[in-house]
Amino acid sequence: MERILLTASVIAMGASGAFAGGIDRSGQSVAVIFENGNYAEFSLGNVNPSVSGQALAIPAPGLNGALSGDMAASYTQFSGAIKYKFSDNLDGALIFDQPYGANVDYPAGTAYYATGSTATLKTTAITGVLQYTMPSNVSVYGGLRYETMSAEASIPFVAGYTATGSKDGALGYLVGIAYEKPEIALRVALTYNSKIKHEIDTAEASLFGPLNTVTEVNSPKSVNLEFQSGVAKDTLVFGSIRWVDWSNFDISPTQYGVLTSGGSLVSYDNDTISYSLGVGRKFNEHWSAALTLGYEKQDGGIASNLGPTDGYKSIGLGATYTQDNMKISAGVRYVDIGDAQVQLGPVSPSANFTDNHAVGFGMRVGFSF
Length: 369
Fold this sequence. Notes:
Elements: H1 2-14, E1 39-50, E2 53-55, E3 75-85, E4 90-97, E5 101-105, E6 118-133, E7 138-155, E8 161-181, E9 186-193, E10 196-206, E11 209-219, E12 222-232, E13 235-244, E14 250-251, H2 254-259, E15 266-267, E16 272-282, E17 287-296, E18 302-303, E19 312-323, E20 326-337, E21 340-344, E22 347-353, E23 356-368
Parallel strand pairs: 18-21
Antiparallel strand pairs: 1-3, 1-23, 2-22, 3-4, 4-6, 5-6, 6-7, 7-8, 8-9, 8-10, 9-12, 10-11, 12-13, 13-16, 14-15, 16-17, 17-19, 19-20, 20-23, 21-22
């Protein structure tokens, strides 16, 4: 039961990538380390957000009540992992994911003040994990994560500002502890992910000329609590709580700070805590399904024009088909994105972003060997 339901559960929760706090996308789960024996998996998904707002109609430059149009471009997520059992007590895994990202594309030709603004942030990570299991069913695990980050931005309404950040790679680490009781499919796992410090070579330009700088960006530290338990025959309850240190995340290229009197290209006022809770059901030896709910509270305050969202509610549905040593899972997730307000220079708020949503689709193929 456990192996079939878990895959459906993960797909229902993730459905090709989260639309969570900050620029969080993968959730950085290391659940593959708990698979039985030797195992490999590959996942692919697509997220289609719809995020739009309207400028306030007040007597200030650019604030004419114009509609922004849909400023959130769709994106595709890929991940893969391989897990190997070295002995009865020692397991290892290698995980590839895309932990953080942003795709901003304000439509050109509108009367909205941010018209034509674009921004992308891309990351990839390779994580190596070793797990040692003690006779008491308690295990400890840890490893290293190598992460790359690159970014680009074009903000015409800030003196024609553009920036291109070259790809930078840096190391971080993770540590965790877990307790399992296999006879009832019980597992509780707590994982700490360290921050990762990037120093990104940045080519900036504006109406005042070009400038080559180095921008320091720290991927945030985070803590994941993941849990599951059988509650009846062929029925599993599962969930997670994820805290991310977004209040210490900041992207502030040098020239952009000068142009905006100390403003940040991207920053967040508060940390985020994301919750998910679901139930999975095995129908027979081949089929299982899972339903999950997700929640992240709205913090209020002012959001960035490059990320005008605040919290979310979500529902996801996943199903898994198992045949011999292969299992194929698919899922869909609907996200009700929280309303947000943004600012333009000293005018705060300058626009309202309301009634937005995202839909994600994902597929995962796993093999035991």
